[in-house]
Amino acid sequence: MTKHVLAGTDQELPFHPERAALLVIDMTNDFLAEGAPYECAGGRALLPRINRLIGLVRGRGLPVVCTTQVHHRDGADLGMVRYLHPLTGSGKALVEGTGGVALYPDLDFDPATGEFLVKRRYSAFYGTDLENFLRRRGIDSVIVTGVATHSCCEATARDALFRDFAVYFVSDATATVGLSDAGWGAFTAEEVQRFALTDVAHFLGRVGTTGELATLLGAAR
Fold this sequence. Notes:
Blueprint: E1 20-25, H1 29-32, H2 41-44, H3 47-59, E2 64-69, H4 81-84, H5 86-89, E3 115-119, H6 130-136, E4 141-147, H7 149-162, E5 166-175, H8 189-203, E6 206-208, H9 210-218
Helix pairs in contact: 3-9, 7-8
Protein name: Ureidoacrylate peracid hydrolase
Domain Isochorismatase-like: 20-208
EC number: 3.5.1.110
């Protein structure tokens, strides 16, 4: 069982499953499809667990929000993304109106009961109406799933914390990729995942498994 207490104390980190929304970050074709520009192969393995959480959250009448990162065809909204991510900057990925920015077909998303959110940066909160959407529904806790753990998922969790939402980051419903050497050595996907989860647990909120979260949701009827 994951320990959900503040480091060096016996104080439990806050999380209110009865007032929580599920955030499914960037489970789209440009990240999950085989041979995709930003393929995160581990992301495909998350689908059964994320679909399970979608069913649990939806069954309790709580919000499910699926995000996609999208940029205009003319690149007018790219900003620094143009320089940090050449595939996106050159129009080879995350382009408005292409199939790459659509949700991966095996994701159990129902637009009649869920929210599809377009974002322009890593965080689902930056430049979007997500905070207002959640506040209007009395939500004070968010569940973070999807890809990639160390970038868009972590950025969303960080922005949630800055807005005083309690964060539950699902360890086995997030995935990432390895990082090439930028001067300090290369890191495997497993190494990046382990560090990102540790960082989130120390600084942003709870980290736990799908099973642990399902127990909390089940007790919050």
